Amino acid sequence: MDLSFTDEDHAFRREVREWLCANIPTTERSTDPADARRWDMAWQRKQFEGGFGGIAWPTEYGGQGLTLVRQLIWFEEYAKAGGPDIGCAFVGINHGGPTLIARGSQEQKRRHLPQILAGEEVWCQGFSEPGAGSDLAGIATKGRVVGDELVVNGQKIWTSFAHMADFQELLVRTDPDSRRHHGLTWTICDMHSPGITVRPIASMDGLEEFCGVFYDDVRIPLDNVVGTIGGGWSVAMSTLGFERGTGFMKLQTELSVVLEELIARATDLGGLADPSVAVQLGDLRADVLALRAMTYAMVSSAARADVPGPLGSMIKVFYADLAQRIHRAQMDIVDVQGLDRGGPFAAEIRHYLYSYASTIGGGTSEVQRDIIGERVLGLPRNR
Ligand SMILES: Cc1cc2nc3c(=O)[nH]c(=O)nc-3n(C[C@H](O)[C@H](O)[C@H](O)COP(=O)(O)OP(=O)(O)OC[C@H]3O[C@@H](n4cnc5c(N)ncnc54)[C@H](O)[C@@H]3O)c2cc1C
Questions:
Q1: Residues in domain Acyl-CoA oxidase/dehydrogenase middle (predicted)?
Q2: Which residues lie with the beta carbon below 6 Å from any ligand 1 atom?
Q3: Position 100 in a domain
């Protein structure tokens, strides 16, 4: 690993800290989808105008052209300053934009990247289907090439923020005779196209961020295909590499802040007098430090590659388990009784319930372990 902070990095950190201190939103984000979208986009735009949008994105598309180390510094300071959740900007910023940077045409980059950064476009991800989640190569949504268009029919599910989105990373089967990862195509789908129906799905934390998306003869210009027709699997692997790798950087850095706040709270409540609580918190702090070391190693290796490798899967497994343990410990230490989402512990309960998603979203922990076994340890394939 080669990661050290230069004098310029330290100066950047001070600049970020000051900017965040002056600009972090103080208003509440509404749960109404239209208001939430406006709120998320306004905050994204403010970061962009402040010179902190797309820190590691190329300057010709509105980014700052800085290193991933600077991006990491931004996330660390953002977490310390209590910056809000990225909300519906998640897909565009964390993996839609990065996929276009790595695999898109000049025209696709020019058309979408500045708009994503400026908070003018919301993206969502249309990969999972009712019969194909972990087994992504089993997708059945069809894209038929007709003239210079793809005509799409089928269904996606668990599409976060589809009801707020303008564009989608859509993976479809364009060769009807193909099997598994052959004959798939990754395309940019305009979510306002005729033939798209979006149905929100409520999750147990009370939010309606998931959706089912239905496609009925949806016409997409072939110019929107990223990579080649039939070459979508490799583009999708790039997307997942970003999602599981650099896309999780912010969440990883946030976890240390959550834990330090919990330790302070436990101290106030006298909980550290119980040796088992002190040991539990000590173990969690050690694991948070291990997560930080792994994140630094990923930044160091991602700086030398266009697309993050399987190290992202190792970090994701570790992060997902740790997030669940920290939010469970919070429930125990603060002594939350029951799951009343409207009561005084609403925030703790929401975070605890949401932590269940961490071992599923972006690919389950079991699937990440398969990837680690095959691609890091060189073990035989599981299927
Ligand atoms: C918060 C969140 C956000 C999400 N957002 C999106 C989104 O925006 N777009 C999108 O396309 N999808 C999204 N998803 C869906 C997510 O990608 C899938 O839920 C995930 O890939 C698992 O697929 P599945 O739900 O079909 O479960 P299944 O694949 O049916 O898995 C069920 C169980 O079987 C296990 N399993 C399956 N295969 C194997 C195997 N080979 N070896 C060992 N165990 C196995 C799994 O680990 C799991 O425990 C989101 C999910 C969450 C939780």
A1: 124-218
A2: 124-128, 133-135, 158-160, 357, 360-361, 363-364, 366-367, 370, 382-383
A3: no
Position 158 in a domain: yes
Residues 187 and 66 in one domain: no
The span from the CA of 278 to the CA of 275, in Å, is 5
The tally of domains found in the chain comes to 3
Contacts of 32 (CB under 8 A, 6+ apart): none
Tell me what the mean pLDDT of segment 199-218 comes to.
Answer: 91
Q: Which of 39, 68, 15 is nearest to 296 (CA)?
A: 68
Best CA proximity match to 346, nearest among 144, 206, 177, 186: 206
**Atom number in ligand 1 closest to CA 134:** 29
Would 330 be classed as within a structural domain?
Answer: yes
Catalytic residue among 76, 77, 129, 243: 243
Residue of the nearest CA to atom 51 in ligand 1? 361
Best mutation site among 351, 360, 381 for ligand 1 pocket (most ligand atoms within 8 Å of CB)? 360
Q: What is the pTM of this model?
A: 0.93
Distance (angstroms) between ligand 1 centre and the Cα of 134 equals 5
The rounded distance, in Å, linking the Cα atoms of 257 and 252 is 10
In a domain, 98, yes or no: no
- Domain limits for position 76: 7-85
Contact at 8 Å (CB) between 57 and 206?
no
Choosing from 88, 99, 128, 368 the residue with most ligand 1 atoms within 8 A of its CB, the one to mutate for a pocket test is 128
What's the pLDDT tens digit per position in 156-191? 999 999 999 999 999 999 999 998 999 999 999 999
Instruction: Tell me whether residue 243 is one of the annotated catalytic residues.
Output: yes
Give yes or no: residues 192 and 281 share one domain: no
Q: Binning pLDDT at 50, 70 and 90, where does residue 346 land?
A: confident
